[in-house]
Each structure stands twice: as structure tokens, then as C-alpha cells.
Amino acid sequence: MDKEELSKEQRILRLMRRTLGNVVKDVTPRSGRPNPLSEETILDIRDCFALISERERELSEALEFGQAKPYFVDGEKPKSNVISIVKPPKDK
Length: 92
Prior knowledge:
Blueprint (H helix, E strand, L loop, with lengths): L2 H25 L11 H24 L30
Helix pairs in contact: 1-2
């Protein structure tokens, strides 16, 4: 598979995840009402989310995207510095 095919598959998985999430959100009952989904269907939905996540991870590795590493299109690092602010001690 080339990068274009992998990217297309990533877009498909992202859309599937969002659509499945919206379906779950739409059928989630208000408090005190019974869930319209059977326990088996709920488990199947969880399995679908797990498979989507697993495949997304595989695609990320295939495209050599590092875990938890930001990707900058222009290759430049951010120009901000993190400063830790410490409260001065209270004089008694």
C-alpha cells in the first residue's frame, strides 16, 4: 500500500469512528430510562471501536508517525518556551 491509500483508509476509519460515536450518542437514553440497545449490541460496538483503534495504530506505524510526537507541516519547532511559575514563600 502506498501512502495515499493508507491516508484514504485513515479518513475512512476516522469517519466510521465519528459516525459510530454519533449513533451511540443519539441512542443513549436519558437518566432513568432503559437502554434501547441489547448487551450484545453494546459489546459489538465496543469491539468495533477497538478494531478501529487497532487499525489506526497499524496505519500510524506504517506511515512512521511516532506516538505522541507532534507533526509540524513546515518542519519548524514552536517558538514558545515553557516557564515554570513558582509562588514566592509567604513571610510570617
